[in-house]
Specification:
heterotrimer; A alpha+beta; B alpha/beta; C mainly alpha; B: alpha/beta; D-Maltodextrin-Binding Protein, domain 2; seven-stranded mixed beta sheet; three-stranded mixed beta sheet; 12 helices; elongated; C: MetI-like fold
């Protein structure tokens, strides 16, 4: 027997091309999924890292400072061009600059470049010359950037305490008073207290605007910047990796805990996180009892005839109807129909301002509950069908009524199936955006729909949603390029929220399921 | 430090605001004239072009009057009249004036016309990729590129850049614009297409920023967007009028009124003729028609209103004249 | 039976009264919920149909408005399914018959996660990241697409000639995992040689070549991009149903075939697949239903141009996307409003029919398995 023959004999059976292609499609699907998640995670988390600011000198002697964002080949010449984020919208009119790489003479990273985050006009990138009181007329001829930087840090910290005090005042005094006044416009005492509080805020605001900064862009333009419009300052080139890590953590935290700012193009997404989770929870609360009720009726009470079978198939099919169709239904029936009528009956005095006749939390939750109802019904029914009939018969034989049989025997055994249904419902609802566009999300609703005023949960309010926020910032903002990192971060967060909601539900099912398994046997 | 104590006191006051001590303090503090502090919800529905501006003003408003809650929705100017008519909102920002049909529908429902307030000026820029060789376009060519009807008098449809004698971007021209509901879509159709119909291949984007982003990525593309959305990735073309004068879309040209595709931006208000302006809306309009509000207009890339027009509109709405604040 | 028990104690009577009452309530509630769910179709029909029949909408207007978006809907769904079905069915076959049980237990929840990925995220990545990249790197994309098939087949061929020890380390049952790095490596290579290929075959400009030679215009947001993104979204649900159908085929069928000398692939292809065909058909139908109704992906990645073009390189506009952007602006009761409701009704009817078809086929399949005597 020759070596070749021996080798050939030891080859495995040829499964053929098909088997490998099948395996390849698994690999490709996993690659695509992994690639997408990786892209979102890297771009989303990378945004908070304080990237270095380059000082670019061009061949013609022009200087500019900015962060390199992307690089593309030039169409004809074969060279490349680079996009810099240069900030300073108030000075240059724009925040972006495309530079041909070939024209860049030198690129340095000096430690004294300052990045200021501002309330208006976006970021400033340049040098800090001095910190002085507002009234100072003349710019000092001699300046010490180091001392100014230290001074700026101290002033910013002071400003931060003032802002916190102001926020506390708003949260704890003004909002409750405002709610009281809304309920009773003639409440003179509340009106007086509110006026006083607002006056004190106005005074504080005046106190905050006492300092100005003298700033200079790298091209030499000098101007004054009121300190109270500055939200944060950093010198990314002078930061150590450790400091950058701290700044990164702070950035992530602020993104999660703050509200949006500057027309949704900066700041955080806290109201959107809250709105998403609240809406999904409300929806689960609505869908579970109704779904279970319908499943019990179909499986335990209804006569098992042709009609029931048809209804069952119809309900099953509704799970496949596109979500946008449910949105249309929600808009037509809930918002325009029921909401409009409710307004006429109960909120007539506030018309033409609508209360329930416009999209809101309640209608959004109801629409999504309807959307996920078939899922819950089908899952619960499957659970009920799995319960052997002798369990029911045994209970009845021992003298239980049908209600007792259903609540004491059947219901506990069906709990895992019900929870499966709710999990599936949550998984489907958390990422839905299309129906919400019709029935209740808002671009900006910074006050979350839960607060300390009666009735605490405001079902008529519009709310923000992470998914809609992604759509909105990516397509409706002022500048897609500038919004991209935030969109990625929001998308990552949405995926994480959905993951957590799913995992919670799975954990719940496991927990309840195992406890039930013990009692059943 | 006195301020701190005051704050703390006011916080306590808010928690148990019926206390007599609280009232006393309030009484002492009322050196400033007592103005009714507006409370309530400000809901708006309308233009997407104005969305950023409305958000800025909303932020400014809540900073001034923390008792006001915001609910802003933006999906296009065409969404404002139905919402105003159906009563789902009181304020409708629009990037074009209301059409006669929309106005009549409003009057039929409410019995009085809506109040229109001009809040800023804007212009539509025709944009191409930043490396596009073209610098200016005349009316006929623009219409021949975008429309299938050529009402402005172009001789033949232009679907390739090579038809204009350009060598650089090869292939067909890719058209980008806004969706049907937006005022931008309607304005461009009326002014640039002489009321004609768009070509079928037009990509309809849900936002102006998306138009600019798409044009900035594609060399053979052309699109239109509001002045405030322009970035370094695209180039705004000058428009050539029939006398051969080039008009660049600049703030000065828009303020002068030279640039052909400029427009006014409006806020429509549902206000009964005998009714007083509700406090929340009053506070909002007071901000919008003030120097601080117009500064936001500028910072977002729109064109602010002249002083005289601010004053006359304030008079019309019964707001205090400027300079008293 | 229960009713005839002696009701001597008042407590028993109360119990039974409560029982009747509760049963009645469950029945009433259940019927109410079911009616509410079914009311969707009714509502759309009541709002849209009278307007069409009663002349509130001109037929001409319906035709000019709805035809392009109906065409766009079908075009998008077609490309999505063209992309999703081979991948989903391949993955289902592999995981039902070849994959190691341990890997399979992990794979299923992973793909469930994929199903829960929101359309808005997929659409945003497709529209703002993928579409511009593909437009700039047309040749690279083409190379990547062409590379996948030969790369997998090459892996299969090479694998047979590997030393036995290495081969045992890389079994076919784990190929779903270890093929991934191989694909990445070859993908890298394909991207690297793409510019060379482009300059040799297409004169250095694939886009220009398409335009000049084939008369095809390449739009950045086109049916292929939408199909790819939507296929990605549809894939998991098709996979789950197809896998269920394949794994449900009674085991003795495949065993019999293998005992007669068939390879595992032959047994799958000739015996298991035909038996599971109705189930797979149902899976494809469900996928079609989802692809037709998906809103956000199309809205963000398609360009929304109302074109009636068959070219996969041009954009389209779908019913769902039109409803999403235009309905909030339409005055209730106006012609536009009813037109959009008509589109919603069309979507509803289409998906309802497709799903019913799938359901009927699946019920038949269940019966067939039972007849085959398997313990599915």
């Amino acid at each position: 027997m020759s070596l070749v023959e021996r080798l050939r004999r030891r080859r495995p059976v040829n499964e053929g091309a098909g088997a490998w292609l099948a395996a390849g499609s698994v690999a490709l699907s996993l690659l695509l999924l992994g690639g997408l998640l990786l892209l979102i995670a890297v771009r989303g988390l990378g945004h908070f890292w304080p990237a270095s600011v380059a000082l670019v000198e061009l061949d013609d002697g022009r200087q500019l400072a900015g962060r390199a964002v992307r690089e593309l080949p030039l169409p004809e010449s074969g060279g490349r061009e680079r996009l810099y984020f240069t900030g300073n919208r108030d000075l240059d009119g724009g925040v972006w600059e495309w530079l041909p790489v070939a024209e860049i003479a030198a690129q340095r990273y000096p430690g004294d470049l300052v990045v200021l985050e501002r309330q208006r006009w976006g970021d400033f990138i340049g040098r800090l010359v001095a910190v002085e009181p507002r009234e100072a007329e003349e710019t000092p001829r001699q300046s010490d950037p180091e001392a100014a930087w230290v001074q700026l840090q101290a002033r910013l910290a002071e400003l931060e305490t003032l802002r916190e005090a102001r926020e506390a005042l708003e949260r704890e005094t003004i909002r409750p008073l405002a709610r009281r006044l809304e309920a009773d416009p003639d409440d003179g005492e509340a009106r007086a207290a509110l006026a006083a509080a607002t006056a004190s805020i106005a005074r504080q605001t005046a106190a905050m605007s006492k300092t100005t900064l003298v700033l200079e862009s790298v091209s030499g333009d000098r101007f004054r910047q009121p300190l109270d419009a500055v939200l944060g300052a950093s010198r990314p080139n002078a930061m150590s990796p450790g400091e950058k890590l701290v700044a990164w953590t702070q950035g992530v935290w602020r993104f999660l805990s703050e509200g949006p700012r500057a027309a949704n193009s900066a700041g955080g997404v806290w109201p959107a996180i809250f709105g998403t989770v609240l809406m999904v929870m409300l929806m689960s609360l609505l869908v579970t009892p109704f779904g279970v009720l319908a499943a019990f009726y179909l499986n335990e009470v209804a006569h098992q005839g042709r009609l029931t079978r048809l209804v069952r198939i119809a309900v099953r099919n509704l799970a496949g109807v596109p979500s946008i169709v449910y949105g249309v239904f929600g808009l037509g029936v809930f918002v325009y129909g029921i909401g409009g009528t409710l307004d006429e009956w109960f909120f007539g005095d506030s018309l033409p301002s609508p209360t329930f006749g416009t999209g809101g939390l309640l209608w959004a939750s109801l629409t999504l509950a309807l959307l996920t109802l078939p899922v819950v019904i089908v899952a619960t029914e499957e659970g009920l069908a799995r319960i052997p009939d002798h369990q029911r018969e045994g209970a009845l034989a021992l003298g239980a009524t049908r209600l007792e049989m259903l609540t004491r025997v059947v219901l506990p055994m069906a709990v895992p199936a019900m929870l499966t249904g709710v999990i599936l419902a949550v998984a489907r609802a958390a990422g839905e955006v299309a129906p919400l566009m019709l029935v209740g999300v808002a671009k900006l609703a910074p006050q979350i729909p839960v607060d300390g005023d009666f009735p605490f949960l405001h079902l008529d309010r519009k709310f923000m949603h992470l998914g809609y926020h992604v759509y909105d910032t990516a397509f409706h903002g002022d500048d897609v390029q500038a919004a991209m990192p935030l969109v990625f971060a929001t998308a990552l967060l949405l995926v994480l929220v959905i993951l957590v909601l799913n995992l919670t539900a799975i954990f719940l099912r496991h927990h309840v399921g195992s406890r039930h398994a013990k009692t059943a046997h | 430090m006195q301020r701190r104590r005051l704050v703390r006191h006011l916080i306590r006051l808010g928690r148990s605001s019926s206390s007599l001590a609280g009232l006393l303090v309030v009484g002492l503090l009322l050196a400033a004239p007592l103005r009714a502090e507006p409370v309530g919800t400000l809901g708006t529905m309308g233009s997407d072009t104005l969305a950023g501006l409305m958000l800025r003003w909303g932020e400014q408003l809540t900073a001034r009057h923390p008792g006001i809650r915001l609910q802003l929705q933006a999906s296009g100017s065409a969404s404002a009249p139905p919402a105003l008519t159906a009563g789902t909102t009181r304020l409708g920002p629009m990037s074009r004036p209301m059409r006669e049909v929309e106005r009549e529908a409003f009057i039929a429902r409410h019995g009085y016309p809506p109040v229109d307030i001009e809040i800023a000026r804007d212009a539509l820029a025709v944009v191409v990729h930043r490396h596009h060789p073209l610098a200016a376009l005349d009316r006929q060519t623009l219409d021949a590129i975008f429309s299938r009807t050529r009402h402005c008098g172009g001789e033949r449809a232009i679907t390739r850049w090579s038809q204009l004698g350009l060598e650089a971007p090869p292939g067909r021209i890719e058209l980008h614009g806004r969706n049907l509901a937006s005022g931008t879509y309607g304005l461009f159709r009326e002014r640039a297409l002489c009321g004609g119909e768009y070509r079928h291949g037009l990509s309809e984007h849900p936002g102006s920023a998306a138009v600019v982003a798409a044009v900035g990525e594609t060399r053979s593309a052309i699109g239109y967007a509001g002045l405030n959305h322009l970035t370094a990735s695209v180039k705004a073309l000058a428009l050539v009028d029939d006398k051969g004068v080039h008009h660049r879309p600049t703030v000065e040209a828009v303020r002068r009124g030279d640039y052909p595709l400029s427009r006014s931006l409006y806020l429509y208000l549902n206000l009964p003729p005998d009714g007083a302006l509700p406090a929340v809306e009053r506070a909002f309009l007071d901000l919008v028609l003030s120097p601080a509000g117009q500064a936001s207009v500028r910072s977002l890339g729109f064109v602010a209103l002249p002083e005289a027009q601010l004053a006359s509109q304030r008079r019309r709405l019964g707001l205090a004249p400027l300079g008293d604040d | 039976m229960i009713d005839r028990l002696p009701l001597s104690l008042p407590r028993t009577r109360r119990r039974h009264l409560r029982d009747r009452l509760a049963t009645g309530l469950i029945a009433a509630g259940g019927i109410g919920v079911i009616l509410a769910v079914l009311a969707i179709g009714l509502f759309l029909a009541v709002e849209a149909v009278p307007a069409v029949l009663g002349g509130g909408l001109e037929i001409d207007r319906i035709r000019t408005t709805l035809t392009p978006i109906a065409w766009g809907t079908l075009k998008a769904a077609f490309w999505a399914l063209l992309f999703a079905i081979p991948l989903a069915l391949g993955a289902a076959m592999h995981s039902a018959l070849f994959m190691s049980p341990r890997l399979r237990a992990r794979l299923k929840p992973t793909l469930e996660l994929m199903e829960a990925l929101p359309g808005v995220v997929i659409g945003f990545v497709a529209g703002l990241v993928l579409a511009p990249w593909v437009e700039r790197h047309l040749a690279e994309t083409l190379a990547l697409l062409l590379m996948v098939l030969p790369a997998v087949l090459l892996a299969g061929a090479l694998w047979r000639w590997l030393p036995a020890g290495v081969r045992r380390g890389l079994p076919l049952s784990w190929a779903g995992l270890w093929l991934a790095p191989w694909l990445i490596a070859l993908g890298w290579a394909a991207v690297a040689v793409a510019p060379v290929m482009e300059s040799l075959l297409f004169g250095g400009d694939l886009r220009g070549w398409l335009d000049a030679e084939l008369g095809l215009h390449y739009a950045a947001r086109n049916a292929l991009i939408v199909g790819f993104a939507m296929g990605f979204a549809v894939l998991p649900s098709v996979y789950a149903l197809a896998e269920e159908a394949l794994a449900g085929v009674p085991g003795n069928l495949a065993e019999g075939a293998q005992a007669l000398g068939a390879t595992r692939w032959q047994a799958l292809w000739r015996v298991v697949l035909p038996a599971a065909l109705p189930g797979i058909f149902a899976a494809v139908m469900i996928g079609a239903g989802r692809a037709v109704g998906e809103t956000m992906i199309v809205l963000l990645a398609s360009g929304n141009s109302a074109l009636m073009s068959a070219s996969p390189l041009e954009g389209m506009r779908t019913m769902a996307a039109s409803i999403a952007i235009e309905l909030p602006e339409a005055t209730p009761g106006s012609a536009d409003y009813r037109l959009l409701l008509l589109a919603a009704l069309a979507l509803f009817v289409f998906t309802f029919l497709v799903n019913t078809l799938a359901e009927v086929v699946r019920t038949r399949l269940d019966r067939r398995y039972r007849r085959l005597g398997g313990s599915a």
